[in-house]
Amino acid sequence: MGRHRDHLVEGSDPQLSVALHPPASDAGLRPVLLLHGFASSTKLNWVDTGWIRYLNEAGRTVLTVDLPGHGDSAAPEARDSYSPSRIRADLLQVLQDHHVVPLREGVPASGVDIIGYSLGSRLAWEFGATQPELIHRMVLGGPGSGDPLAAFDLAAAQELLAEGTPIQDPRTAELMRMARLVPTNDVFALLTMVEAVKDEPFTPAEAVPRMPLLLVAGENDDLAATAQELADLAPQAELLTLPARTHANAVTSRAFKSAAVAFLAA
After folding, report:
1. Which residues of 137-153 are buried (b: 16+ CB within 10 A; e: fewer)?
2. What are the extents of the domains in the chain?
3. Predicted pLDDT at 98
4. Can you name the residues that pair with 8 across neighbouring β-strands?
């Protein structure tokens, strides 16, 4: 399958690296927008795990976006560039640029399906709630009613980077381990994103997506332990639990991929 990297989204800060991944044989279904997790990227979350190949084999066109400070996207200094509300605005621009949503009245557009993972699920939940006419179905992996970045100990993370002082909070320590695991990650940009997310806490009950949702959580994923709470909020949600999977490896599950493709095609 070929990949066509179209462009960086101009006129916004940060600039988002966007790529279109067409199938060899198009099934005639709407495109699928993929949103990766914190400290990850399109490559790590979707290419290396086989998701794009799997969706292409199902005849789906895939649109991928690297979040600001992640992957091939820019890492601006301004905190506002990383806020969830700004990212949602940039995602809308991405869909307009790819003619997935109409630029003006009378221009047809197909809308999209969305698959998000971890932070990408939080962004998809809010995007679906605020743009219901554009989103047909969504699959949210590793979701929870809370936000692990909201409780992130920024001071401890900064002390670790400056002095090498170990982080005491286990969740912050794990997120920092993930952030530093990828040599190309800009850790300071990721910490700026944490600050921006803290400024806009996730309150899922305030804006609930109404389209069909499939929530997918690993049985041993503590970050998604509250996935049922999200399912209870949304009127058309169902929850799939992946036996023995964690937050780190649920995304690699073939059962996850199969369920997502079937759900989006329903």
Report:
1. bbbbbbbbbbbbbeebb
2. 4-147+189-265
3. 79
4. 17
Selection from 86, 120, 102 nearest residue 15 by Cα: 86
Q: Does domain 4-147+189-265 have CATH number 3.40.630.30?
A: no
Rounded to two decimals, what is the model's pTM?
A: 0.91
For residue 240, give the H/E element and its range: strand 237-242
DSSP code at position 67:
P
* One-letter amino acid of 98: H
pLDDT value at 116 more than 80: yes
**Which position has the higher pLDDT, 74 or 3?**
74
Burial class (CB in 10 A: 0-12, 13-18, 19+), 224: buried
Q: Name the nearest CA neighbour of 68 among 97, 27, 46, 36.
A: 36
Any idea which residue has 């790590």 for tokens? 44
**76-113, pLDDT tens digit by residue?**
999 999 999 999 999 999 998 876 655 445 545 678 99
Distances from the Cα of 3 to the Cαs of 50, 93, 164, 199, 201, in angstroms?
A: 14, 20, 41, 36, 35
